Amino acid sequence: MERSTIVRVHDGLHARPATRFVKLAKGFESDIELIKADKSVSAKSSVKLMLLGVKENETVTVRASGADEIEAIEALIGYLEDPHAGTAEEERAEKASAEPAPVQPEAFSTNSDTTATGKLRGVAASEGFAIGPAFGFFPAEIKHENRLLAADEIPAEAGRLTQAFATVQHRMDMSLTATDLAESDRGIIAALKDIACDDELTQAAEALVKEGMDAVSAVIGATSRIAADFASMDDPYLNARADDVNAVGRQICLALLGQDDANLEAIPNGAILIADDIGAWDLARAPLKRIAGVICGHGGATSHVAIIARAHGIPAVLGLGHSVQELQQVKSVALDGNNGDVFPDPDQKTVDRFHAKIGVAETERQALKAYKDIVPRRADGTIIEIAANLGSLEEIEAAQEAGAMGVGLFRTELLFMRHIHLPSEDLQTETYATLAKAFAPHPVIVRTLDIGGDKPISGIDFPDEENPFLGWRGIRMCLDRPDVFKPQLRALLRATVHGNIKVMLPMVSDLGEVRATRSLIDECAAELKAEGRDYANFDLGVMVETPAAVMIAPMLAKEVAFFSIGTNDLTQYIMAADRLNPTVAKLNDVTHPAVMAAIELTAKAGVEAGIMVGMCGEAAGRADLIPAFVNMGLTELSMSPASIQRAKKCVWELGQVGNQKGE
Ligand code: PEP
Ligand code: MG
């Protein structure tokens, strides 16, 4: 028998929901399949389910045949229609452990590179500076044995294979019982164990052994095929699962060979871990407290290694490619997790520079805590809001702990990038409302989707563009795609009922863009009213980050409630210097008189029109520039939470000096 339904699982059958669905299915003896379009897979394999790529709001069919088919269909359809029944906590924990943190602009430049000074460049995956002895983790590659088994050898080899799977599953179970395991690491190990137990993998390897292949080759064959399937999926989260499958395959091969993997237990205190490809499994159970930094040939900002490093505050540079091999022989290494630089065997000058940076950072971090709850004012008493730039709800706590006076930039891209489909209006409403409630009564400025050809997302087809930074992005794309833009505007109107939400538009270069957005907002408000839904109007502002916006700032100021200066893009557009291109990095300088003049013009136009002028580009957190910005009339500065206390101190001191001078 079979029944169809619409999937109501938020992320679709992704990771943990797929596992939960499989657990339910395995509780029934019937054969059960899940069917999407013309593809059907066993409902008892989470790997197969994930590879089916079932998304929220898609129609699927559950087919069961066996003694308990009615009960099975009832339970599985029930789960697809109401996945939250009793499982919300578990789902949240899994999501928190699996989601990428916001990606710094540098992290998009994934080309590894060796510079003239011997410096290497990779992906900035976890911020901070580190220097220490190099600890190479380059486990020997496991090779195919390529043994053809005689018919009478097959049963024993199959038995060895079963035993190896059981050994690895048992080791993972033992790790999961460790009491000192961080919750996020537990989620990662549990996900690896799901793979190690999955029928898709065990059966594929068994089938190869039954055909006469030796067990090691069979495991390599089965895992690389499944890993390739994950790697080819149209979703970065599922792509990263390919590394997990390979890591599990390696553990099973080692168990078959009776070998232990290269051991991280021996890593000395304060060492920098260097690897071509370290599995999340290896890192999660490593003595993380002793690791000062991580450098890896593989991986990117969304890989599990990056997630673990960030969760433990370990600076990391990933995605170095082949150049990581050059580090096999080095004695010491320094890394800058903010921009992706790696210095092999650094000279004394670099060593001194890194020690100084680390020392300064730590002393300053302690001393700055005193400024957490200060409300900084200009000498005339005007409050200068020091707010946080956030990219996901997981960052709320860090911002609150830093003393953020609201959110000056909520980048909504991650919400769109981390899903395999466009996030629904309801999910967006919930997200924006949660954010607003967390910071009320402070304002929360949500930026509408700022996505372009350089950061594509599934659900929107971007054309190939010669110059994506000058192309179809930000407000330009949104106005062309009301099917994407309107749900976001409706969600923002609905969420404003719950707090102090303001909305700003990215990449504005023309008054028409503001006017067209306003009429869409009016249209959305009218629809919500007709539907009898609660909503409230929000202040609409613009980011000033194109030279055009600077030039028409006096006109823009008459049409919007506030400006927020996006110095990251404003600098690259004013200077005509790609912000991701290290060869023109020198020109990408916010302190250049041309950029400072553009900021001043914007501030002047805003102040004269009586609207708030803020800044949310990286420059907002620079203590050396804050006095100039405050003098220009900026009253809001939004930055990464790590910079908030320093900025508060800076503005507070400025106010004190002004008072002494009687300003
Ligand atoms: C900016 O351009 O300054 C900005 C804050 O936006 P983003 O870095 O997200 O482009
Ligand atoms: Mg920008």
Notes on the structure:
- The protein has 663 residues and is α/β, with parallel strands linked by helices.
- 45% of the residues lie in helices and 15% in strands.
- It has a nine-stranded mixed sheet. Strands 14-15-16-17-18-19-20-21 form an eight-stranded parallel beta barrel, surrounded by four helices.
- β17 (501-505), α18 (511-530) and β18 (539-544) form a beta-alpha-beta unit.
- Bound molecules: phosphoenolpyruvate and magnesium ion.
- The site of magnesium ion has 5 residues, from α21.
Helix content: 40-55%
Mean pLDDT: 86
Largest sheet: 9 strands, mixed
Radius of gyration: 27 Å
Quaternary structure state of the chains depicted = single chain
Secondary structure category: alpha/beta
CA-based shape: globular
Number of strands: 21
Which ligands are bound? phosphoenolpyruvate, magnesium ion
Q: Determine the number of helices (DSSP H or I, runs of at least 4 residues).
A: 24
Strand order of the largest sheet: 5-6-13-12-8-9-10-11-7
Uncertain segments = 87-116
**Could you tell me how far the N terminus lies from the C terminus, measured between alpha carbons in angstroms?**
81 Å
Proportion of residues in β-strands: 15-25%
